[in-house]
Amino acid sequence: MIGIDLLSESLLPAVVELAEDKSWRVRQAIIEYMPLLATQLGKQFFDEQLGTLCMSWLGDTVYSIREAATVNLRKLTEAFGVEWARVAIVPKVVGMAKHPNYLYRMTTVQAITVGTAPSIYI
User: Fold this and answer.
1) Which of 40, 120, 63 has the alpha carbon at shortest distance from 88?
2) Are 117 and 84 within 8 A, CB to CB?
3) What is the Cα–Cα distance from 65 to 83, expressed in whole angstroms?
4) Among the four residues 8, 25, 89, 104, which has the most C-beta atoms within 10 Å?
5) Which distant-in-sequence residues (6+ apart) come within 8 Å of 20 by Cβ?
6) Residue 22, burial from CB neighbour count under 10 angstroms (0-12, 13-18, 19+)
7) pLDDT digit string (tens) for 86-103?
8) pLDDT (tens digit per residue) in 3-60
9) CA quadruple 68, 21, 79, 51: dihedral positive or negative?
10) Minimal CA–CA distance to 74: which of 24, 40, 120?
11) pLDDT of residue 2 exceeding 70
């Protein structure tokens, strides 16, 4: 069993580096593993260390990354619950709807319909 401190010192920098890799396929692979990593680390650690990173993928220049990011949000909502999503995800996603770039606005729509359960927005 690896402690959170050891994990944050060794694994977290590697995850962050790969999450910002030039290759979109590397970024996509990290996105796909994020729900598993998040459930292992817990809500608090995820919110403090990885939440911002997951939200940043919604603004990626590559469509496949933005699409994977919305699926990632759904999986995170399934793992952490609807109440967590209402606090941690919904305000950020809804805030993207006001962005001047249409890609952010389109990603907002996709995140609402695919990424998380639409009922959490009501």
Assistant:
1) 120
2) no
3) 25
4) 89
5) 27
6) exposed
7) 999 999 998 998 999 988
8) 666 766 778 888 889 999 999 999 999 999 999 989 888 899 899 889 999 999 999 9
9) negative
10) 120
11) no
Q: How far, in Å, CA of 37 to CA of 23, rounded? A: 21
* Residue 63: both structure tokens together: 């469509």
Q: How far apart are CA 42 and CA 4, in angstroms?
A: 10
- In terms of residues, how long is the chain? 122
Which of 118, 67, 60 is CA-nearest to residue 89? 118
Helix axis angle, 24-41 to 4-19, nearest 10°: 160
Cβ burial of 65 (10 Å; 0-12, 13-18, 19+) is buried
Q: Please state, in angstroms and rounded to a whole number, the distance separating the CA atoms of residues 70 and 72.
A: 5
Q: Which amino acid is at 41?
A: L
pTM of the predicted protein model: 0.83
59 close to 107: Cβ distance less than 8 angstroms: yes
